[in-house]
Amino acid sequence: MAIKRITVAERRARIGVRHRLADPADSAVEAARSLVALHGTDPAAVYLAAAARMRSPGVAGIERELYEERRLVRMLCMRRTVFAVPAELVPVVQAACADDVARLERRRTLKLLQEAGLGDDPWLREVEEETLAALRARGAAYGADLSADVPRLKERIVLGHGSRNEAAPAIASRVLVGLAVQGRIVRGRPRGSWISSQFQWSPIESWLPDGIPQVPAETARVELVRRWLAAYGPGTAADLKWWTGLTMTQVRQALARVETEEVDLDGTPGLVLADDAEPVASPEPWVALLPGLDPTVMGWTGRDWYLGEHGPALFDRSGNAGPTVWCDGRIVGGWSQRADGSVVYRLLEDIGAEAEAAVRTEAARLSEWTGPIRVIPRFRTPLERELSA
Predict the structure, then answer these.
(1) What's the pLDDT tens digit per position in 54-107?
(2) Three-class HEC string of the chain
(3) CB 5 within 8 A of CB 323
(4) Cα–Cα distance between 222 and 252 in angstroms, integer?
(5) Which residues have a Cβ under 8 Å from the Cβ of 111 and sit 6 or more positions away?
(6) Which end of the chain is more exposed for a tag (fewer CB within 10 A), N or C?
(7) Residue 333's closest CA among 345, 321, 322?
(8) Global pTM exceeds 0.90
(9) 251 near 244, Cβ under 8 Å?
(10) Rounded percentage of the chain residues whose pLDDT exceeds 90
(11) Residue 4: C-alpha distances to residues 12, 79, 98, 279 (Å)
(12) Strand 287-290 and strand 72-76: pairing?
């Protein structure tokens, strides 16, 4: 049987429909589900990515879903990256990715502790248990509060020894991140505004009363791969390996348990779910201003079909995406904010007068939405820096 071909136009149509950019969602969690999870390395990116996909976005509503209804949970998981994960998917993500990240993080922390002459695994476990007990006693706390309760959290390690970036931070942040990636504590509401990165911590049971149910790792990986294919497919095994952070062996083992169909992506072998090879109807024309590290921008490792030649202007040297302007499933420019918070953009290709007018409208809407808040991406890119100057 001939292998079906899925064109670039078809892939771009899928972005518009499935990533809720042409068909907005009613809630942040609905937007997150359409993407598996929202990228959250930059705290503000969760809000901006959700708002770009919501019918009636508002900071208060997104905060309510995050911190009151607790329908989204911030986790360190795929690629050792923070994501805001729909609560029902937390057990899958924990078993598929976070547990492996936890093991790697623990090994690194123990190495740093030993180099600093502080202690070994039993010492770290004692500090973790004391920290968890202090957090449960408080109910919720910032790192500084817990360091007052557990003095050993103030002990210092050396990072970047001998380099110009050498630093000697307290171990508190590594202990707290370690407990979080183990699924024992969770990031809560930040101090200050929605762009703040100083999070309050809470015991996991205050967010998920029964904790995180255990799922066999192999089963979890199968489910995560299936969800990625549903949201981002067609794609390649290399895309899956990159997005999940799994090994290629783990990806192939998971794919062997998912019903897929091989397709031709303009000469590159790709995969879709077995019941998902038929064309998707093209949506109405759409434009979007997406934040740095947006899930759609970072959804694949092979990006030429939607990025074109714009990578050097819109990505940093480590492959981190800056804020982007989209039109009908492709990146056509970038945007930034001036010191007063106003949104400015630059188109890198001709998209026609009607689409350009839609971009102007979207930029004005985003300026009004952010108000005086200025979001500075964690990873600055050439065009973003130029526009913000």
Answers:
(1) 999 999 999 999 999 999 999 999 999 999 999 999 999 999 999 999 999 999
(2) CCCEECCHHHHHHHHHHHCCCCCCECCHHHHHHHCCCEECCCHHHHHHHHHCCECCCCHHHHHHHHHHCCCEEEEECHHHCEEEEEHHHHHHHHHHHHHHHHHHHHHHHHHHHHHHCCCCHHHHHHHHHHHHHHHHHHCCECHHHHHHHCHHHHCECCECCCCCCCECCECHHHHHHHHHHCCCEEEEEECCCCCCCCEEEEEHHHHCCCCCCCCCHHHHHHHHHHHHHHHHCCECHHHHHHHHCCCHHHHHHHHCCCCEEEEEECCEEEEEECCCCCCCCCCCCCEEEECCCCCCCCCCCCCHHHHCCCHHHHECCCCCECCEEEECCEEEEEEEECCCCCEEEEECCCCCHHHHHHHHHHHHHHHHHHCCCCCCCCCCCHHHHHHHC
(3) no
(4) 10
(5) none
(6) N
(7) 345
(8) yes
(9) yes
(10) 92
(11) 17, 31, 35, 10
(12) unpaired
Tokens of 70: 């607790």
How far, in Å, CA of 180 to CA of 187, rounded? 8
In whole angstroms, give the CA distance from residue 319 to residue 311.
9
Residue 1's pLDDT band (cuts 50, 70, 90): low
> What is the C-alpha separation between 212 and 91, in angstroms, rounded?
6
Give mean pLDDT, residues 285-312.
Answer: 97
Residue in this structure with the two tokens 């590159």, named with its chain if needed: 268
* pLDDT band of 158, cuts 50, 70, 90: confident
Distance CA 172, CA 258 (A): 41
**What pLDDT sits at residue 167?**
81
The answer to whether 75 touches 90, Cβ cutoff 8 Å, is yes
Of 24, 28, 20, the C-alpha closest to 67 is 28
Q: What residue has token string 């108000």?
A: 371
**Which tokens sit at 347?**
């188109």
User: The tokens of 354 are what?
Assistant: 């009607």
